[in-house]
Amino acid sequence: MPRLSKLLPQSRDGRTLSAATFVHSVGFGSFAASSAIFFTRSAGLTVAEVGTGTAVAGLTAVAAALLAGRLADRVGARELMVFLSAVQAVLFTAYTVVHSFGLFLAVICALTAADHGARVARSTVIAGLASGRDRVTLRA
């Protein structure tokens, strides 16, 4: 396994962050790929409602990313990343009770905001863990 070890960050914190990012990316990506089907078939939303909610959530994410940067400066990027990751877990489970456009809009906006805020915090944590070429490897 020498090849795999060259791909992984050298530091323990870097490997932990990489593992957490991998799990999040696989889970979030899998859900994103199938969510429209879930919301239209199981939750009873129309395609237009899913599209509108997703677009509004995207706009919300821009504002959330800006706020997350300021909040990371105040409370710490690592703490913010952990908190927002926990919030995302709770909000993913909230999707199970979505059966109206209003609730869908609230949950998808909050989840997308938490996701983008956590990305900002994660980038800040990476900047503090590594520099130069190691930072690029950790981001990858």
DSSP helical segment count: 6
Radius of gyration: 17 Å
Question: Which percent bin holds the helix content?
Answer: over 70%
Structural class assignment: mainly alpha
Largest pleated sheet: none
Order of helices and strands: HHHHHH
Question: Segments where pLDDT lies below 50 for 5+ residues?
Answer: none
Summarize the model shown.
86% of the residues lie in helices and 0% in strands. With 140 residues, it is an all-alpha fold.
Task: Describe the protein.
The structure is a single chain. Helices cover 86% and strands 0% of the residues. It contains six helices and no strands. The radius of gyration is 17 Å and the shape is globular. The chain starts with a helix and ends with a helix. The model has no long low-confidence stretch (mean pLDDT 86).
Brief descriptors of the model:
140 residues, mainly alpha, 86% helix
Write the layout of secondary structure elements.
Elements: H1 2-7, H2 12-42, H3 47-75, H4 77-94, H5 101-129, H6 132-139
